[in-house]
Protein 1
Amino acid sequence: MAKSSEIVMQKHRVKYKDGLDSQEKARYEGKLQLIDDEDPYEMTASMFSEDVKLLPKVTYPDIVNYLVFSPSPYTSDDLKSYKGLEAYNQFVCGWVRDKATQVINNKCLVKATVLHSQRMSEKPLQPWFIAEKEGRILAAHSALLFVVDATFQLRESKTVTEEKSYWLLPTSVKGVSYKQVRDIDFTSAKTMKKKLDAKLKSGDTTPTICKQKVNNIPDPTVDELSLLFKSLSEINSKPAILSLIPEYQEIYVPQPMKENFPTILTEMRDDSALELNYVDLLKECKNQFREISVTEEQAKAVENSTREQSNSELWYRFRAGRMTASKMKSACCTDPTLPAQSFIKSVCYPESYKFSSNVTDWGCQHEKFARDIFTDKLRKEHENLKVEEVGFFINPNVPFIGASPDGIVTCDCCGQAVVEIKCPFCKKHDSLENASDDKNFYLKKDNDGNLKLNTKHMYYYQVQTQLGVCQMESGYFVVWTEKDLHIEQIVFNNELWKEICDKSKHLFITAILPELIGKFYSRLPNRQPLKPVVNNNLCEKESKSKDNEEELWCFCAQVESGKMIYCDNEECPIQWFHYTCLGISCAPRGKWYCPDCRKLSKFRTKRGKKK
């Protein structure tokens, strides 16, 4: 009977492989080559061992390196987002069970069973991963990785009895039964994770049995409940319980959404574009660019709804994919033929690139104080002056550019002006006179000895972009330290604004849109890693020998025509590319790799090292 069951299981698992399309099947078979072409779905349970000593030494850094730097073509952006932690939630909630290991070709093949948290009756999933014994992950499913990480931590530790404390691992869920509300464990996955991490780190390896304390509390009277509901209705919030009480329900009736928002740029993703080559994708991007528009009404709705700025989810959503003021200097200086992938991804996924440090914390903590001092100083010279905090501005004339000033100054005598405030952490105890002696500081003395913002600095580009987007003629650049305050009025530079619009438009079409629409820089290269490049073969090609006249080149698979450029990767399968197909007009500086080759890790590393 067992043998018959195994045969049926093998047939079912073979169908999984055969049911893949040609590209997916090729990728799947590429992973199997790591383990001598053995298919985990064709292997029987008897071929695996539950001995935890066979598990690879997978740790959290190994998981991060794999998920962030080697994502699948279709989920790379998801892996970098907060939802990527759902895999850990599956582990701590006990949905992952029956892990087992098989060592093949000095590599560890680990598989397990994962239950559906919302559909317990459905057949469980059977993920697997391949890793080296020392922990480097070669191919994986993330939920299973966290199980092995925790198991490895316990394997390396011992209890007071010198036995491994595997009982600390979350208990595998066998099934979900109906219970009364009071008997249900509502502990969140986040809290479970904290408790598990604390146990793993603290060395608390003594099993304990939690006993729930039962309190004999009498039921409330009608008068007591009425008083409670009345008190809740008088606070400045909307407690959910009042939505169930008839006399308080009116304020909970949802209002129709009045805001007329423009399209979120990250929603431009097109699954049919995920397999397009760069040239075809670029054509699609140019077509889609013509469809991007923002009305005056939509721009006002965005600004009004994002005034909490970094504390607003909408602020990140409308920034995503747009060239923002704080990044405009980088956008204008980036070589459009070799755009930095880190820049592209920070534009497309700003929420994934946010961070906190002493520098940012200092600026956030003192910005309001600096604004108040600035307001007090200007109020003496202007009529009815006020400084308002604002949200994210989009200029309908250039809907791919956005800006978030630190405020807008309004007065009866001068109209409106933007405000940008800086509180430099590295100069917080210095006077600005002394700070200007630092060659890297953005304030410099002019011929008259007055401190001025360096017009080559990124902050100058930031203010000019804010003026252009907000359509204002002047703005204030404010620098505050504990010893000094600098207030400088910046006049709109129309010539620089034109340069900003032209360069950012070109970069938006050729670099940002390919990522937004086709995930071009997130998806993995569509061929195997190549050998190291030995020589720099960068050169321009006006014409080649007649012997090669009929050969086809470039993504477009056409014969040579006009200017062409050679990929510096000697094993690039295409080699020669048309300037027109790449959207470039002149030769790039230094080594040049085609859009496909530049995604390979070895070339990204080399460019990083050169810097």
Protein 2
Amino acid sequence: MSIRVVLVEDQMLVRQGIRSLLALDDSVEVVAECDDGAYVIDALNANSADIVLMDIRMPEMTGIDALRAMRKHNIDTPVIMLTTFDDHELVTQAMQSGAKGYLLKDVSLETLIDAIKSVVNGETLIQPSVTEKVLKGLHGLEVSFESFEQPETLSPKEIEILRLVAAGYSNKEISEAMFKSTGTVKNQVSAIMAKMGVRDRTRAVLKALELGWL
């Protein structure tokens, strides 16, 4: 069964281009399109969707504001921000608002499809070319977390895994780099997040930065 996608992009030609690109892969299907973030909730209410691909800067409602509105309406469909902007402040705002992914529009079809599948499977990701800028911009930033208690100390191996997560590595890429099975890495990443009292990989990285672990 194909992954059902809602596409939110204000520029018609760009929207058509992304839709045509996704049509080349049978594993995904665009079930609805919006030309502004203001209409994404209606689109999700009218269509069964697995994921939203959403631009950030749109004239009536930005992608970040639309994402916040989704969460206020208890709509937890995962969102990937697909944008031309790699400003670390926008990335940080998007991830803190609940985005599960952040990609630039010049990614390849293969990268985009892999990202969609990863996010649908519960992972959180930032395109590696964006990650370095984000991490540099996060030092000294006040970040809200689920728990403000001092988390358990991570082992050197867990810190190593967290560094790879911060660099944008997927579980598969971490497993290849550390000569472990993907299942083992997935379990270790889950254990790291549990120790840190966070719900996803991005919050784990943000909290580790606040604690000076990275």
